[in-house]
């Protein structure tokens, strides 16, 4: 079946007003907050590893290769999880997967307390990464399918804000725990701290209904209409007559009508996260080589700048448009990394300025990671498309995370920064060539191939 959306089409009359409108608005906000709670867990799972790895390296006697593997394990798992569980979410439904992935977060977090060797730790981090990949696909699809077009951009963008909140909290907690104890096993508690947000979000998500758009795409029209009327106060919008059925499978993403948007979402996301994870995972080492003091403050400030930039991106997304918000930050981050690459021994003020500019503009545009993939694919392949884009992006993120410690040792920090600059330039070129403007469009219209 083709994409079926629950938002009122033009000409269907005015929407709900008064108390009913406020009720619907609260429900949409709840959907976004519960989806964002999963993003907090995602950011937490990935954020704690930076503080935990140096302690685990000493306790488990990890070689540089093991440090790189464990540091990138969640990203490798995310690649597999995005591919498999995005497709599964389109097959069996959003609501089931919405709860299963939080159970995996909770169990995996606690298992990190009892791992005994690098192999066991690697296995747990891989599984948790797969759950992160699943949650990326589920959260974006649910928000896109429940929220009205007027609020969709901001609420989808808020998912990335939640991600940075989790990442920043995890980084700060990890630094604090590492500095306040001499316990050789403190890294276990740092990694296991993700159990707390996972439990809270799991409980909050109980009772979330299935997406009416997904139900309708599977032919369950009566159920979809009932949920749409009860929860959203509007009739289910039927697909346009010219829209043919869309099959839920990965090969559909590479059909001629969807290939360009599949390449665009995958490549722009890859170009954003590759330098980010490469730098942030090893921020203490990178900042130290650039002359910053090794007290954890630089890393924490980097994450604060990222959070501020992300909030700014969410605030301006509907004013400047999706395309501009993606294109110009790629150009600015490329310049910041170019300065660091050509001048690695610059004054600490210059280093701080470049890192601050990189963090602000990268984070501001990173809100598009939740927006674009959720808007440009129809319901039947929406989670599959998000999952594939997330998976492809993590090829670069995992490679960057694995290679950074080796690259710093072999080539130096300047060369690593220049490679990050080259990736940002590639992202700008991909955006200039392929990025559509989807702001304010109904989901069915935003995801309709241009040829129709």
Could you say what the CATH topology is called?
A: Growth Hormone, Chain: A
User: Structurally, how many domains make up the residues?
Assistant: 1
Beta-strand segment tally: 0
| Mean of all residue-level pLDDT scores | 84
The string of secondary-structure elements, in order, is HHHHHHHHHHHHHHHHHH
Top CATH class: Mainly Alpha
Molecular shape: globular
Rg, please? 21 Å
Number of helices: 18
In percent, how helical is the residue content? over 70%
Class by SSE composition: mainly alpha
Annotated CATH architecture: Up-down Bundle
Describe this structure as you would to a colleague.
- The structure is a single chain.
- The protein is mainly α.
- It has a single domain (18-238, 247-446), classed as MFS general substrate transporter like domains (Growth Hormone, Chain: A).
- The protein is 77% helix and 0% strand.
- It has helices spanning 18-60, 64-92, 94-111, 118-146, 149-180, 186-192, 195-205, 212-217, 221-232, 256-281, 283-289, 297-320, 322-342, 348-366, 368-375, 382-410, 413-434, 443-446.
- α1 packs antiparallel against α2, α4 (118-146) crosses α15 and α12 (297-320) runs antiparallel to α13 (322-342).
List keywords for this structure.
452 residues, Growth Hormone, Chain: A, 77% helix
In a nutshell, what does this entry contain?
The chain is mainly α and about 450 residues long. It has one domain (about 20-240, about 245-445): MFS general substrate transporter like domains (Growth Hormone, Chain: A, Up-down Bundle), CATH 1.20.1250. Helices cover about 75% and strands about 0% of the residues.
């Amino acid at each position: 079946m083709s994409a079926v959306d629950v938002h009122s089409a033009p000409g269907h009359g005015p929407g709900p007003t008064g108390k009913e409108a406020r009720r619907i608005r609260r429900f949409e906000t709840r959907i976004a907050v519960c989806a964002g709670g999963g993003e907090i867990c995602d950011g937490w799972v990935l954020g704690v590893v930076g503080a935990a790895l140096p302690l685990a390296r000493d306790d488990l006697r990890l070689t540089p290769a093991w440090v790189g593997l464990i540091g990138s394990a969640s990203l490798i798992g995310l690649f597999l999880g995005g591919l498999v569980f995005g497709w599964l979410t389109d097959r069996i439904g959003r609501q089931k997967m919405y709860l299963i992935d939080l159970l995996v977060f909770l169990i995996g977090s606690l298992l990190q307390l009892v791992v005994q060797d690098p192999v066991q730790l690697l296995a747990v981090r891989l599984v948790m990464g797969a759950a992160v990949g699943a949650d990326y696909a589920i959260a974006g699809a649910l928000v896109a399918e429940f929220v009205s077009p007027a609020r969709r951009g901001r609420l989808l963008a808020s998912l990335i804000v939640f991600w940075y909140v989790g990442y920043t909290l995890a980084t700060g907690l990890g630094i604090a725990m590492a500095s306040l104890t001499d316990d050789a096993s403190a890294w276990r508690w740092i990694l296991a701290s993700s159990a707390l947000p996972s439990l809270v979000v799991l409980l909050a998500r109980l009772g979330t209904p299935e997406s009416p758009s997904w139900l309708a795409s599977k032919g369950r029209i009566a159920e979809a209409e009932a949920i749409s009327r009860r929860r959203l106060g509007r009739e289910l919008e039927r697909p346009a007559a010219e829209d043919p059925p869309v099959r839920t499978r990965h090969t559909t993403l590479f059909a001629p009508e969807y290939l360009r948007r599949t390449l665009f979402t995958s490549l722009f996301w890859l170009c954003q996260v590759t330098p980010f994870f490469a730098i942030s995972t090893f921020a203490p080492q990178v900042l130290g080589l650039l002359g910053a003091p090794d007290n954890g403050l630089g890393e924490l400030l980097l994450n604060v700048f990222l959070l501020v930039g992300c909030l700014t991106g969410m605030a301006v997304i509907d004013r400047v448009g999706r395309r501009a918000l993606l294109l110009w930050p790629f150009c600015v981050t490329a310049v910041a990394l170019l300065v660091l690459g050509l001048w690695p021994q610059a004054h600490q003020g210059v280093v701080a300025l470049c890192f601050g500019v990189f963090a602000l503009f990268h984070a501001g545009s990173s809100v598009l990671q939740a927006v674009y993939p959720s808007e440009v694919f129809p319901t039947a392949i929406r989670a599959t498309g998000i999952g594939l884009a997330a998976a492809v992006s993590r090829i670069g993120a995992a490679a960057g995370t694995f290679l950074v410690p080796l690259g710093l040792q072999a080539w130096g920090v300047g060369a690593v920064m220049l490679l990050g600059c080259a990736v940002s330039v590639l992202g700008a070129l991909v955006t200039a060539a392929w990025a559509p403007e989807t702001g304010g469009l109904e989901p069915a219209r935003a995801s309709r191939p241009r040829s129709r």
